[in-house]
Amino acid sequence: MSKYIIEGGHPLFGTVDVQGAKNAVLPIFAACVLTKSDVVIRRVPDLADVVSMENILKNLGVKVKKEGNVRVLSAKDMDSDNIPNELAKELRSSVFLLGSVIGRMKSSQVAYPGGCDIGLRPIDIHIKGLRDLGVVIEERAGYLFCDGSNMRGGEVVLDYPSVGATENVMLAAVLTEGETVVRNAAREPEIVDLQNFLVSLGAWVKGAGTSEIHIRGVKELCGADYNVMPDRICLGTWLLAAASCGGEVALKGGRKAEIYSLLCKLDKSSCHIQEDNGIIIIRATGEPVCSERISTRPYPGFPTDLQAQYCAYASAARGTCVVTENIFENRFRHVPELIKMGADITVRDRVAVIKGAGFLSGAEVTARDLRGGAALVIAGLVARGTTVIDDIRHIDRGYEAMEKTLSNIGAKIERI
Ligand code: EPZ
To answer: By C-alpha distance, which of 23, 99, 86, 22 is closest to 56?
Structure first.
């Protein structure tokens, strides 16, 4: 298994081009099966999760052409509605195809995507939402057998503002006759990006970014040439790395407005952040002091996908920080690894209390999940001495060549 070797203690200086958003490109790829015209998607990050989604699309009969970070997808000859277990278990986001395949084929057979490293990841809200649109869903032998022959627009009230369930209902509704309204919808920026993409295909969708989304079904969709939004979680990850290590880093393509919940939790005495026509510049001097209370919440609250990285930042800062993880039930797996690096963290239920001593020490650690792995990289960059991070395949799921990005701004990191 690949590892990272990091020599800590080097400040970061330079420029990072923020990659396209993993959590936008995955539902957008799923949406491509809704049209028989070719679709061009730009700023597609080179990630393991994107490859897994491409494999699922190819299995459905979709043609995928790769030209650098551009993909040309053609679902004209799509000839299957079946997502087998061996593909679904590779990628939880296969669940998005539940809605888009039903939207296109009026039927689908999708293996249960199953849980992952951070929690059980149930899909009950997805299923209820699709049933509210008239989809008949039978759960049998680990598969969902869906019949969408009598689908019609309607009112969908989500019990919880689930990102995936919101996206799934949008995907199922755009080709479904009648008007659909999704209430208690998730408000994440990736949902706005999905709406913008669907509208570029000729769909009628309004309200994404608010908790009420309206969709009017259309007969068919056309092609599009679309730029995926920048990845706000990568942006937050690089900001936390710079805030931890010190230095001056320019982040091209990031949008400050999408990470206000993080910016207000960074120590203003040690890092100054400004936005200059599309470029965010962080100047980090001195030793961060962190005595914040963090509670992960649906957008625009503090993102659960930055919780682990924030724990690493707080562990190396001075002060006591309390982090509550409200979204996923098993998202503190980075804590035992940070403790190996000298962090003082106690976890009770969903609350971690972090007593930052102002430094960490290099150690041999293991990535247990995607964002926990990114947290260990931040810890390794700031630690005294050398850190070895094992099982970095988790990191490859969401960060494009992380070692290259960080080496380009002065980090001493190599992949072996
Ligand atoms: C999306 O996952 C993201 N993934 C996650 O990013 C992100 O952490 C999450 O939204 C929250 O922001 C993608 O977009 C591909 P949810 P999703 O449905 O859609 C419960 C990363 O690191 N729930 O909003 O699965 C669920 O168990 C990944 O990039 C149900 O109970 O998130 C969780 O506790 C990790 N029933 C909570 O809701 C359901 O039917 C939030 O889940 C659906 C969800």
So the answer is: 86
162 ligand 1 Cβ < 6 A:
yes
Catalytic residue status for 290: no
Full set of structural domains in the chain with CATH = 3-19+230-415 (3.65.10.10), 22-223 (3.65.10.10)
d(CA 266, CA 236): 11
Q: Which of 100, 116, 157, 160 to mutate to test the pocket of ligand 1 (most atoms within 8 A of CB)?
A: 160
Report how far ligand 1's centroid is from the alpha carbon of 96 (Å). Answer: 12
167 lines ligand 1 (CB under 6 A): no
Prediction pTM value: 0.97
**For residue 348, how far is its CA from the centre of ligand 1 (angstroms)?**
22
- Taking only the tens place, the pLDDT of each residue in 71-90 is 999 999 999 999 988 888 88
Atom of ligand 1 nearest to the CA of 167: 19
Evaluate whether 399 touches 405 at the Cβ level (below 8 Å): yes
- How far apart, in Å, are the Cα atoms of 115 and each of 118, 286, 330? 8, 41, 11
Indicate the residue type of 115.
G
